[in-house]
Amino acid sequence: MKTEVRPNLFTKPVNLYYMLLGSTLSLSILGVVMVFSASSIYSLENNGSTYAVVLRQIIFLVISIPMAWVLSRLTLTRWKLIARFGAVASIALLALVQVSGKRVSGNNNWINIGFIDVQPSEVVKFLMILWAGFMLAKREHNGVIETNVILLIAPLFVFCMLLVLIGKDLGTASVFALILAGLLWVSGVRLGVFTGILAVGFAGLAALIYTAPYRLDRLSVLINPFADGQYKSTGWQPAHSLLGLASGGFFGVGLGASRQKWGNLPAAHTDFIFSVIGEELGLFGTLSTLALLSLLLFSIFRIALRSHEPMVRFVCCGIGCWIAIQTILNIGSAVSVLPVVGVTLPLVSYGGSALIATYMGIGFVIGAARRDPKIFEDLKKSDYKWLR
Fold first, then answer.
1. Does 134 map to a domain?
2. Going by C-beta distance under 8 Å and a sequence separation of 6 or more, which residues neighbour residue 137?
3. Is the residue at 7 inside a domain?
4. Nearest CA to 342 among 207, 238, 233, 245?
5. GO: which molecular function terms (predicted)?
6. Structural domain harbouring 49
7. What are 172-192's pLDDT values in tens digits?
């Protein structure tokens, strides 16, 4: 005799929609607050105002939210049309960076458009996921299951990675590689083949690290960033990141009271914002951030699993992998279990290109949730029309 499962917070379909919106907005608000705190000293020194950096982040957020709303209303037919040109647009954007790009912190991955610098590789992450989801869905619709999935999507991903590596941005290239691995996994690649691909990928990564002394130095400081001869060079960032996290205690030293942001921790408002959260808000703040990110990822993957449309499943899974990968790489760098790779924390770190690209992905997932009959039926009953 089967027992009926009573609906709860995690099983009722419409709650996935609320979790997605709630976690996204909560992380965005947390991001604005922590960007303001973490960037205040840097902003004062470089811009003459403590508000300059956070005001730009607020502007990016004001642009991102309506954009995500518009994208969430696009039909699947329109998404498929955009996806057809996703790979071509991606290659064009990355090639443009190499032709007329701007070098920042040793990486040539930015383009100056007059009043601001943009990072096309962030948008390319979404476009490549969209294109790959379209290609995998087309394969499934046509019933050509025997098609080699690796040859279907991997070559263009690898080409994009090579363009990024020309600009010496190993962190972004690693994100592309791991997104590809996630898409191959959800597409049903056999375990043996998948393991072989991972082995080749890690061998390539090891070669890239071994042939670049500065990357090898970043890897070596993981053991002890405070070691003599390393602390004042490549160990400086991970060492002061750990000092910030260690000094936070359970509830932190207080919002705005970070000591590491006073010139000790470079990129405090971007790559190492998690350390500032740990210092100012303590273990409570870091665990709350992780809980919100986990809730976001849970809702994305659950919405993906509920969809009957292959493209929606693949794209949502790709977006979930993208956010999860960047979270792991960013926090792994902050706690010094992974080398510093220069990857931002989704929705929390400062960065207009990253924020807009992430909201593009979330806009797609919101649209996927709205197309779910059970979710949309419950949304129509809501008293808040803006949630529908």
1. yes
2. 309, 310, 311, 313, 314
3. no
4. 238
5. lipid-linked peptidoglycan transporter activity; peptidoglycan glycosyltransferase activity
6. 13-387
7. 999 999 999 999 998 888 888
Count of domains for the chain: 1
> Please, which residues bridge with residue 361 across strands?
none
Q: Is 145 within the bounds of a domain?
A: yes
How far is residue 194's CA from residue 185's CA, in Å, rounded to a whole number? Answer: 7
Residues 6+ apart with CB under 8 A from 172: 109, 121, 164, 342, 343
Q: Tell me 387's DSSP state.
A: G
CA distance 205 to 254: 39
Alpha helices in the chain (DSSP H): 13-47, 52-72, 76-84, 86-100, 120-141, 149-166, 170-186, 191-210, 213-220, 236-246, 273-306, 310-334, 352-370, 373-380
Asked whether the beta carbons of 109 and 164 are under 8 A apart, the reply is: yes
pTM for the complete prediction? 0.92
The pLDDT tens digits of the residues spanning 230-260 come to: 777 778 888 888 888 999 889 999 998 888 8
Residue from 376, 354, 366, 388 nearest 312 by CA = 366
Q: What count of other Cβ atoms lies within 10 Å of the Cβ of residue 360?
A: 21
Tell me if 339 sits within 8 A of 222, measured CB to CB.
Answer: yes
Q: Are strands 117-118 and 102-104 parallel, antiparallel or unpaired?
A: unpaired
> How is residue 172 written in tokens?
């972004």
306 inside domain: yes
Which residue is it, tokens 């956070």?
Answer: 54
What whole-number distance in Å separates Cα of residue 359 and Cα of residue 46?
A: 28
The rounded distance, in Å, linking the Cα atoms of 81 and 47 is 42
